[in-house]
Prior knowledge:
heterodimer; A: 502 residues; mainly alpha; 22 helices; 2 strands; globular; B: 149 residues; 2 domains; two-stranded antiparallel ribbon; 5 helices; 69% helix
Amino acid sequence: MSTLAQLGLGFSVALEPANLLFCFIGVFVGTFIGVLPGLGPIAAIALLLPLTFKMAPATAIIMLAGIYYGAMYGGSTTAILVNIPGEAASVVTCLDGYQMARQGRAGPALGIAALGSFIAGTFGVVGLMFFAPVLGAAALRFGPPEYFALTFLGLTLVSYLSRGSVLKALLMAIFGLLLGTIGMDPISGEERFTYGSLTLGDGLGLVPVAMGMFGIAEVLENLAKALRGEVYEKKIKGLLPNRKDWKESFWPIVRGSVVGFFIGILPGPSGAMSSFTSYAMEKRLSRHPEKFGTGAIEGVAGPESANNAATAGAFIPLLSLGIPANIVMALFVGALMIHGIQPGPLFIRNYPELFWGVVASMYVGNALLLVLNLPLIGIWVRVLKIPYAILYPLIFLFCLIGVYSLNNNVVEIFIMVIFGVIGLVLRRTGFEGAPFLLALVLGPMMESSLRQSLLISRGSFSIFFGRPVSAVLMVLGLAFLGTSLIPAFKRKREKLAAEIGD
Amino acid sequence: MKKSSTVTTIVFLAFALGAVIEASKLPFGRMSAPQPGFFPIVLSALLAIISVLVLVEVVKGREEASVAREQMSWKRIGLALGALFAYAFLFEVLGYLVTTFLFVTFLLRVVDRKGWGMAIAVAFSASFVSYVLFGLLLHTPLPAGLLPI
């Protein structure tokens, strides 16, 4: 079948009334949860995941995908209007988006974010359409060493890109890998570090840990600071960017789409990474970099496009290799497994209607977002005007219900609250959550591929460097590790020299 | 910042050493045939080494203050945390509606010093609406507890 015919098949799946309805519900709920500060796609998916257990697999995935990009979009709305990033990927949108809103240009900022996201999302879907099958075919020849090298590269990359100390990021990554070994051994099935707990027998749940470290910890931190951004009151008029805005945003959107897509393919918190990269790139390429941070529309258009393209890109390692690139993708694995479907190199061949249906639904979902969000912005503004004293108990409630509804297990509520405390302490002391969480997701795959590789090679590590694909990935990972540590030494020496000079 | 960072890193170091001891109880196997203990031991040893490196980094104070110092009101955090733990303990005993009602009332009345009327009104509508939405419409199995629903 040609790509076009397959895409036709996809649209016939995506446009079935039930699928269309759940795509709409996903996008809508996703945006709503994304608008609430402290809650992002993970909480949104956890809340609605149990609903998908009884659906047809295609419907389930279509709805979850809708929640994912809806939540990303909702996050940018709050960034622009209240200077509070709804989730990590929209942190940079605050910089120029909120400034635009203060100058009375909230409309064009929201408009360009929506249109840029739509263009980039469409680009990402086209990329997904072409890359996923190719990579899937190549991945059929991947063995344990390649999988180990991929996870290794993902973890070094996320540590490398962390803010602050690289050593602290590495520490968090290893901490995550270590906690990932709790539960059943992936090869022999032996129980490890469960201390008789049935809940821990299945491993430390990703959702309670993630919602604790991000949702609960963030709300607690906001509570202590008791600060609250101001919703930009001025009437939002003229959502459509004018001709000058378009001219300034065109290339940032194009560049953001391409960069975001390729960052999305790499394992890691790709949404945040891609928007930061795009912002830095636009600032460097701009003829007036001093305008960034004071309401430059490029600073909204580029990153917003990038994080949407990354959303599509992130599906590639999942659907073609079976590697979840972030927590959201790990939840997708869970959703697929419930229907007895294993994502991996054979996924596209075995379930064409599922793959192409999801691809087509992403076009539909992006179009829905565009149509929905422009008129619905009024509602989101009203949600944001709810005083924080009333909003945060609701955010807590969403976290509590979301975690409980996954397995109906109260122990997981405790795990979430405990990780809320841990997350609060760590973020106050400069330890980042992202490497930890990715390590927790990739840990089991990393361990089993490492052990299988060592079995094959009879204990020799040369196996990772003797095969072309894994060699390239390993060398890349080691290079990131090396170069991130060298500047640390450099700075240390500089500081030492300065002290001696005094 | 520096002090709390130091303490956190020492806790990590202690955790890593404890993990080394616990992991060494599992069979390690050989390099050519690694057993369940292999990965945890390697990781906990690595964690201990990196904790020491981070400790050196923090104590030498090379690291810039990455988190701005602000006034934090720890009392509110403590109260909210207490409420969350209480929620987890009471959830299955009292049931979803009652626990949620008490939880939201407590947060509004005690943590945020809102009036009783406001607290109860919000708590009542929050627990009721969320029950209808999740319990009835989305079929999330929520414990009934005291109320026969």
